[in-house]
Specification:
58% helix; 9 helices; Alpha-Beta Plaits; alpha+beta; 15% strand; 241 residues; 5 strands; five-stranded antiparallel sheet
């Protein structure tokens, strides 16, 4: 395809891309505006071995996944709810909490979400306190050299709004709309790739010269039919007679 072919495609089907971009962007913005405001608070809990021992360090890394699972149990959630006096049930609470262990940094990230930023912070910090209290009580019974220190990195946490973000979602929607529109245009172009529409494309494809072509009808041109030269000459002779 040459540059003229590409320009023809843009003139004929560029509106598809523009329409897809506008619709996707407006839809993403509209859906975002219908979402409820949600805030997210995060607490980091440090899991550090009592001594710099390779074996104890690997043990701590292996236990971090177990810690994350045990934190997210209905029993722990119930204790947190009672401790923080939250108006929730354990299963609703757990659906709004996410616990992620990171063995590379010996950290467990506790993330809580709620429509109220103060409640989100209270949910996260109380769950961290409950976990630290339970682990500290357990390791207090162990030998000091085999203990794993569990503590909250910082209690000064904030809550950031992560939903809704209409502008960000609108930009993402326009990008997806652009990709979708281009894909539709490419599909339509591929479906028509077998048609030879110009004499140049016929000569290029068949490697043969074009000796003649069927003229475009008046209906296809969208205008009145023009008389052929021979018919016009015969009409002129009849007027002279």
């Amino acid at each position: 395809m040459n540059i003229q072919d590409y320009l023809r495609i843009v003139r004929r089907r560029g509106w598809i891309v523009v329409l897809a971009v506008v619709l996707a962007g407006v839809a993403a913005f509209g859906v975002s505006m219908l979402q409820k405001e949600m805030y997210r608070a995060t607490v980091q809990v440090s899991i550090v071995p009592a001594r710099p021992d390779w074996g104890l360090g690997n043990t701590a890394k292996d236990l971090m996944r177990n810690f994350a699972i045990n934190i997210q149990t209905p029993e722990v959630a119930q204790r947190v709810i009672e401790r923080a006096q939250l108006d929730q049930n354990p299963y609703t609470y757990l659906s709004m909490v996410k616990v992620t262990p990171d063995s590379s940094t010996f950290m467990i990230k506790i993330e809580a979400r709620d429509q109220d930023p103060k409640v989100a912070k209270l949910m996260a910090i109380t769950l961290a306190d409950e976990f630290v209290y339970e682990r500290t009580a357990y390791y207090a019974q162990q030998d000091k050299q085999n203990r794993i220190e569990v503590k909250i990195v910082s209690r000064a946490i904030g809550a950031d709004k992560y939903q809704p973000k209409p502008l960000l979602n609108a930009v993402a929607g326009t990008v997806l709309g652009l990709l979708f529109g281009i894909a539709v245009v490419l599909l339509l172009t591929w479906m028509e790739s077998g048609y030879l529409r110009t004499s140049e494309s016929v000569e290029r494809t068949l490697a043969l010269p074009v000796l003649g072509a069927i003229p475009v009808s008046a209906h296809e041109r969208g205008g009145a039919a023009q008389p052929a030269p021979q018919a016009a000459g015969r009409r002129l002779q009849a007027e002279k007679v």
